[in-house]
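tokens incoming
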């Protein structure tokens, strides 16, 4: 996962994701914790309904935190997906919620698979404890 550092000073610009910082990006999303993601509109055309994101040069504020968006945006670019085995349950659950909200189907499928795996192991461990 790319590293993000937040700038607290009002004199400096907001923190920008090191992974999603294209200078030619035409959409800027901002997480609820103040991080910005510079995204190419063409990558949003499949998962995000285009009419919902007519930004006209403005920053689009989203209700998700920066960690969730950092993961979510990895699913809309043609690149290797994040290793979900290294991501904790709570983070996967937040990603699943965002993927469902924005209809990022590849992320929905991966999250569903991962959550079923984790829940299956928790269920098995509970059965072993109570046997």
């Amino acid at each position: 996962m790319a590293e993000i550092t937040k700038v607290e000073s009002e004199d400096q610009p907001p923190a920008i994701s090191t992974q999603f910082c294209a200078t030619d990006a035409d959409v800027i999303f901002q997480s609820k914790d103040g991080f910005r993601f510079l995204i190419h509109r063409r990558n949003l055309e499949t998962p995000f309904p285009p009419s919902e994101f007519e930004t006209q040069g403005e920053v689009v504020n989203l209700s998700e935190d920066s960690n969730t968006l950092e993961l979510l945006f990895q699913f809309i670019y043609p690149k290797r997906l994040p290793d979900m085995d290294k991501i904790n349950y709570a983070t996967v659950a937040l990603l699943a919620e965002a993927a469902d909200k924005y209809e990022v189907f590849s992320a929905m499928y991966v999250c569903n698979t991962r959550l079923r795996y984790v829940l299956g192991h928790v269920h098995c461990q509970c059965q072993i404890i109570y046997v």
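note: DSSP finds four helices and four strands in the chain.
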